[in-house]
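User: Predict the structure for this protein chain, please.
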Amino acid sequence: MNWSRSRRATSSLRRALPAALLAGVGVLLPTPPAHGGLFSAKGNVIALLAGELYVGEAIGHFNGEGTLAIRSQKAPHVSCVGQFTSNVRRGGTGQMRCTDGASATFQFKRLNLYRGYGIGEYSRGSMNFAYGLTHDQALPYLTLPAGKKLALDGAELTLADL
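Assistant: Here is the predicted structure, written as structure tokens:
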């Protein structure tokens, strides 16, 4: 056996293997519920800021970074945008600013790659949220104001009296 030729073949295989694995990543990764682009996922956000309902979307990227955009259901002219980072072991943290001057910092726990929940410090009160979940799935992770429930008004999620 020619050891020199065998070593060259092994070396070529070692260089080609990572490229082949990366090429197959798109096939091996589960498809997210909604797409935000290659190697990112978009999902809905349901948040309660100082007892008011906000809804919107978050886009998370494969590297753990992401953005979010939510708007008040009570006062649709008020919206908030922010950024976050996350990893499997520690969960995630982020911050956001709202058009009415309010701001928040938050932390969250991932239930899986596309779903999770969290709490935060909002400049006008408490904050809690869920992402990637339907409103029914989100209920165990949300702290609703006393005497309120989540309800659908047509296709729009609202905070309604019990």
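DSSP finds two helices and ten strands in the chain.
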